[in-house]
Each structure stands twice: as C-alpha cells, then as structure tokens.
Recover the amino acids of this structure.
C-alpha cells in the first residue's frame, strides 16, 4: 500500500475569488505516469483549503480493471464520497451526488484521494478527479 501524488496535488490549491464563490479543481494522473500501482494504493488527487464546501465530485478513469473498486475520500474518511465504485472497461464516471457525503465542509486543509481497492489496477492508466466546491460562502439554510 503506497501513497502517490497526482502532479496537480503537490501544492495547496488556493481558492480564487469569484462572483459565485464556486471553484472547480481537477486532479489528474496522466496515463504515462510511470508509477506501478497496486491494490489499496492511494493517489492524492486534489488539495482543498480550509473552509471548502465540496458540492460535487466526478471520478474519471481509463481501463483500470474490472475488479478494481475505487474509493474516494480524504484523510479522515477514505470513503467519504465514493465507496467501492463500480468500474468496467473504458472510461468511467462516478458522481458523488449519488453517494452520501455531499456537501461536506472542511475544517482543515486536506487532500481528496482515490484508493484503488478490490484488485491490482492496471499500470499507466489515466485517473482524473473533478471537484467542485464553494469557498467563503455561507450555506447555512
């Protein structure tokens, strides 16, 4: 079990001021990443700042293997957004809105990670994680 870092996750992402306060961040591990991935490896995909309220999340993967069941979460809960996602051949989409955990407010800076559970994943497969979050916006009803 190894932790890898997607290239875009190396530096803390700083939220930019926008009219809506909504940010979309993409963490991307390219197909030619050169890593040897194994079952239960963690890939840190996106860093989120303190106060970020995750509103949506999409996981895209290449042909990583039919028996791989990816989890998407963070340091506190590895399955906060997606638990044992179902994959098949080709490109895969998993929307967090079909899972519990959204919206979630971060009280400390963290990373949103993909854990490659279930089986050994194929090497040199692209993984992308698109995270939409609000920052600096009060969502109290």
């Amino acid at each position: 079990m190894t932790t890898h870092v997607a290239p875009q996750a190396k530096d803390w992402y700083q939220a930019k001021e926008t009219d809506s306060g909504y940010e979309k961040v993409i963490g991307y591990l390219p197909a030619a990443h050169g890593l040897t991935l194994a079952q239960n490896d963690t890939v840190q995909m996106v860093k989120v700042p303190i106060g970020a309220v995750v509103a949506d999340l999409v996981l895209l993967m290449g042909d990583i293997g039919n028996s791989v069941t990816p989890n998407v979460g963070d340091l506190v809960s590895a399955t906060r957004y997606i638990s044992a996602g179902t994959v098949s051949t080709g490109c895969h989409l998993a929307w967090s809105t079909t899972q519990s955990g959204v919206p979630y407010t971060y009280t400390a800076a963290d990373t949103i990670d993909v854990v490659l559970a279930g089986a050994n994943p194929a090497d040199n497969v692209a993984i992308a994680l698109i995270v939409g979050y609000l920052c600096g916006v009060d969502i109290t009803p």
In short: The mean pLDDT is 78. Residues 3-8+38-126 form one domain. The beta strands are 3-5, 22-29, 41-48, 53-61, 69-73, 92-95, 104-105, 110-117, 127-134. The chain is about 0% helix and 40% strand.
